[in-house]
């Protein structure tokens, strides 16, 4: 009686090659989304040569507690009023040296936009979404003032000019023209947004 043959074996020699090719395919074709961070310029490492004295009236303090409540200049404030309060502080112009400021010239508030600093402080338990919303309102105060001055000077919004200037696809001759305009408006209202150390209680 002839011997029965067993089931034919599958040649698995090329399975490793196929798996390797599939791995390469998925590595090449897969895109990984990355979170866009906050656009912030870090201060230089070296300390200033001389101590800078900052008057308390030139600091606009914004505190966020763990419940998301705002304490602005030691007073409770709703988020809706934060941007206008920050704008009033930035363009107060108490020392009279700012000829483009439309502020009240309150002697108890900031002297000049170049001296005005906004200090943002939050609790460790503050929600991230609340923190970002408050920060957006403060940056929005700077942008609104810059847009106003850019419209007066150049007939365009500052945010639009800055976006075009920072776009790498913008032709170099256009970027060169925008560079001085963007810097001029930035110098009128320099963004001095200080993030104070997080409180633990």
Overview in brief:
By secondary structure, the protein is an alpha/beta fold. 38% of the residues lie in helices and 10% in strands.
Please give a structural write-up.
- This protein has 5 helices and 5 strands, in the order αβββαβαααβ.
- The chain is α/β, with parallel strands linked by helices and 201 residues long.
- The chain has a domain at 56-195.
- It has a 5-stranded mixed beta sheet with strand order 3-2-1-4-5, covered by helices on one side.
- α3 packs across α5.
- The protein is elongated.
- The protein starts with 14 loop residues before the first helix and ends in a 6-residue tail after the last strand.
- The mean pLDDT is 85.
- It is found in: Cell membrane.
- It is a single-pass membrane protein; Single-pass type II membrane protein.
- One of its GO terms (molecular function) is transmembrane transporter activity.
- This is Biopolymer transport protein ExbD.
- Keywords: Cell membrane, Membrane, Protein transport, Transmembrane, Transmembrane helix, Transport.
**Class of secondary structure makeup:** alpha/beta
Query: How many whole angstroms does the radius of gyration measure?
Result: 28 Å
Largest sheet, if any?
Answer: 5 strands, mixed
Helix content: 25-40%
Low-confidence stretches: none
Terminal-residue CA separation: 90 Å
Oligomer: single chain
Shape descriptor: elongated
Number of helices: 5
* Secondary structure: number of strands: 5
Strand content: 5-15%
Mean pLDDT: 85
């Amino acid at each position: 009686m002839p011997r029965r043959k067993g089931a034919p074996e599958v040649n698995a020699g090329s399975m490793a090659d196929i798996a390797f090719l599939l791995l390469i395919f998925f590595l090449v074709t897969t895109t990984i989304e990355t979170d866009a961070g906050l656009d912030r310029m870090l201060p230089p490492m070296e300390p200033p040569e001389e101590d800078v004295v900052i008057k308390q009236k030139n600091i606009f303090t914004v505190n966020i507690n763990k419940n998301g409540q705002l304490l602005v200049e030691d007073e409770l404030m709703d988020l809706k009023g934060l941007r206008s309060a920050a704008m009033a502080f930035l363009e107060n112009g108490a020392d009279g040296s700012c000829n483009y400021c439309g502020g009240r010239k309150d002697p108890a508030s900031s002297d000049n936009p170049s001296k005005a600093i906004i200090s943002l402080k939050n609790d460790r338990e503050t929600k991230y979404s609340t923190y970002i919303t408050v920060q957006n309102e403060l940056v929005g105060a700077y942008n609104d003032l810059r847009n106003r001055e850019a419209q007066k000077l150049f007939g365009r919004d500052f945010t639009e000019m800055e976006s075009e200037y920072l776009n790498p696809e913008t032709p170099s001759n256009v970027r060169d023209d925008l560079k001085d305009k963007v810097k001029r408006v930035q110098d009128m209202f320099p963004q001095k947004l200080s993030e104070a150390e997080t409180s633990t209680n």
